[in-house]
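Q: Got a minute? One more chain.
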Amino acid sequence: MKKTFIILSTLVLGLSLLLTSCSDKVMGYSVVLWNIPSLKVESGSVVPVYIKSNISHVYVIGTPDGEKAEVPLWQLTEPQKKSKIKNLQAKYSAYANTYAAVKVDGLPARAEAVNTAKQVYRLRKGEVIKILYKLNGTAPMTGGKPLEGDWFRILTNNGTQACCFSYNLNLYQADIDGNQIGGEKIEIQENEDTLFEDEIALKTWYPDYYSSMIQSGSIDLAKLKPSYNFAIDTVNNKVTLNLSDIHESWTYDGYSRSGENEYELKGIPLVIIYKRSNFIVIRYTGSSGKPQDINLVILDADLNQIIADEKARRLQEYKKIYDQGPVFESDSYGKITFNEQESFYWSNFKLLVPSVIPKLAKGSGSVSVKYVLGKALQNSYDGVITFKFQDADNEVNFLYKIESNGLRLEDATGASFNGNQLYSRGSSPIIIFFRKK
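A: Always. Here it is, folded:
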């Protein structure tokens, strides 16, 4: 704790020194997206930017009175050269002082200006948002007729930008202090704790090992499934936790904040701990009564596309083996016939029983190229081929290399695996060459 305090103090001191001693060199100019009453800076105006801190998430800007001050990153556009700032300012000028109050609870804000686009934020009744500019889009339909209104690019007071149709928005002009000028008065919601509704319940969460699996390219289709996730339906107060070893669904009776960024869902055996925008921990207590922590993440990738790509990769690698044969023969270890439907027939393999092939194995079964090679093996082998013999419980793996006149297999019984990756050979493997017949 003491070490953390020292680090934070150093960061704060460093930024304070920058504020008091930074040069007058401007890194760029930004358009103010949301009024800054304390500095008397209106939305739509242009300010010089001196420093950008990704640690503190602030810009240091020049104020009208010649001082320097910190402003959250989300309140400004990305700094531009002076020659480009006028065009950027013009983009926001038509709605520079336009804000809106939300008329209904749960109004969706979407990724694009169409009602079928992905929902990225859910607005609350009475929530105030900033209107940035008008968009070209398709109006939502009701009763076969388009709703009245327009699509706008909006900004929320937590920095989220999205697209929202104006039918359920009350647009109005605001002065420098944010006071509403004209328009229908809508009471602003008092509850400022929107973390659960907007950052947790709005998203679908997946096991954290999905991220490392995707990044490494070692895709295990048995473990990576779109249905393995954690999701909250706030409309019906339902929670689902579906993982490889947990399949639960509950109805909860509200939630309460039990600690800093920690939420208890009433009536069900789990607690949600919010770590950051793409990472939460679920503390789940099962029938054993022993709690377990489950790390969950948000994925940018399309899981269905990743699965499709991995299936295509496996089929492509198998096809290379099939096209080289499909029949291979060894004088000592029998004959292997590969079929197009990822199946095989292997005769006369008794010299490999039981050290490599199980004693009860029949001579046919399915075959796949589901594992990937570690970097150290990629220059020596083409991949790993997996045989699943009929009547045998365990799979049989071989490292393989396609030769000009056949197929070389190396027993992987003693090889080392890490998830879906084979990264080290066995100590004394059996190596077999099957000639192309």
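A: The helical segments are 2-21, 82-93, 195-200, 209-216, 303-324.
Q: Perfect, thanks.
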